[in-house]
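Example A, followed by Example B.
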Amino acid sequence: MAARSKLLALLPFLALSQAATSEEWRSRSIYQIVTDRFASPSDSASCPLGSTTYCGGTWQGIISKLDYVQSLGFDAVWISPTALNVEGSTEYGEAYHGYWTSDPTQLNSHFGNETDLKALSSALHSRGMYLMADIAINALSSASYTLSTDSLSAANDGTLLFKDPANYHDRCDIDYSDENSIRQCWLATGDDNGAVAMMDLKTEDDTVAGVLKDWIKEYAENYDIDGLRVDASRHMGTDFQHDLCAAAGIFCIGEIFEDNTSYVAGFQGDNALDATLGFPMKTGLVDTFTGSDTTSTLAGYISDAAQYYADPSVIGTFLDNHDLARVNSLTDDKTLVWNALVGQFLYGGIPIVYQGTEQDIADGDADPKNREALWNYNDYSTSGETFGRIQNLNKIRSGLGGADSSFYESVGWVLSQQDSDIAIKRGNALAVLTKRGGSGTGTWTVSGADFGNSASIVDLLSCDWSTTSDSGDITITWTAGQPFVYVTSDVASQAGLCQ
């Protein structure tokens, strides 16, 4: 009996060692980490703003801060690429970010060794958390751009995985109006001054694809990876990516750096990827709440998502990342960012928050300044306002999903909208967002929420209770441009929120 009890206690964690599917990832929320910039062993390594050299962050450093990540409410971590990269200084600095792959089958020793990466995976799983690994395999990188056997054999001290020129597409600049050019030309063509060349691989070739599929299967199994973030998905064929992810046997989400929803959605499906990162929705949220666009911009992206995605409930929603300007660098008004965060979490999909957003980091208006060392900010404080807001959003999302699992399968739709304000209904919840700003006041009556007449409702962000009108309308009253997330008292009780 004792042995059986121990086995039952281990079942939730044993399940994590099996292949994680879209259905299992759908309920997760992800904290994005650039390994070199998240946590160093000493928490005091020198790393000036805009540094393009290694600063000392490691996989062991991540392990040491998992309490911090988990206290935010995240149950998955996405780490930057683990692969062996171009070594030494280049015209653009060092490969601290991990995206200048030389050999994906080897690890980047700057971050640790095989034991360290396995320890990170194990530490996450022991907490019931998932590990998502970033892979950058559309190209191999070198400070030389010459496609010859001698040059490829010598590049990166002989560490390039593919040394046959026939494994690469010819060097050319990308013409983004031509899909063949997007798939076959180079993201970076290099130069004679030491600039890194990203030599595009023929992933459509059976030899190249076979090597990469064999590697990804072993990689996922060896390090017990739960999901993959596929870098530069736009620059590889969907058939190859589907087969690669099938070989890994785990959830894959691809990066298609484009805000056209119909185009991005073409990379998701039965013969493509499980999901894509939500660049279009990011544009809708950020342009609406930090720019001059009215809420009709966001409403348009929400409509497009419903129309084009095969499954919008697993798109990765985010406001910024390691390649983009930090959302806090685009506005000084934290209330506008707060509204955008609520929109991100309550619209649907899998929310992703980039390290440092919780600390209100606003320095990063562009790469490399948006890859700040987190240890330089607030000593990993857990008491800040935005930290608490993200923590609460994860709690609300988990509570609503725990009370009704179909909540995770749903996405929001626009119930009502006017220039500065938008009401988004998702399942049993109503999110009301505004771009009035931190000093914004006013009222707005929203009809059609279907909460009932004279019904008791609560805003889950403030836990303030109110009542719908005798015709079921909700009167929104702004005192400081704040967002709202309304549910009925019954739903709040079932979700264990605001009790």
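Example B, a separate protein, is given below in the same form.
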Amino acid sequence: MKYIIFDFDGTIGDSQRLIVKTLQDTMRERGLEVKSDEACAKTIGLRLDEAFVALFGMSAEEGKACAATYREIFMKNKEIMIVEPFPHVIETLRKLHQRGFVLGVASSRNHCSLDGYVRQMALDNIFTSIVAGDDVEHVKPAPDMVWRALKEMNGEIEEALVVGDMTFDVDMAHNAGCKACAVTYGNGTREQLASADWIIDDFAELLQKLDF
């Protein structure tokens, strides 16, 4: 295993409260039924327009309109709700980078948001590839993000691993033809993530899985 592609929300960054609140604020702004925290959290990992379609069964155009409202509200909410990395994430990523692994990020966020968080956590110098939702036509669980990341990393699918917290991440990895490592501290449960090749409860356990 040489090439590792990480999800961001729920894997690297603890963003659930911010995302759920912004989804619910968007629903209020647009006069929609305000869904529960649990229902909102289940959509994390989908592209924004697809999340609203999944929640309300609305048209693709309505989903895009909701996504635009979400982004406006998000810019305000992110100033008061800081996204912090999960425990052991930063030091583990740096160890992997130092030991020769080629690292990338694949997130359904758009580049403006994703790049900002990567810079905020001072991780931009260790990721060879940063793939966002606006880079591909088909987001998770389609394999497009993995394929794009590996192209930028000059990597081979047989040597790749995807690390994420949702079934979308696991399915994306398997659809692309590579292994998946699921984390249980994010937005998915161990039971939901049972199809992953590896399951870890702490980000630092990844070093053990990779024989360090």
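On Example B: The chain has a mean pLDDT of 96.
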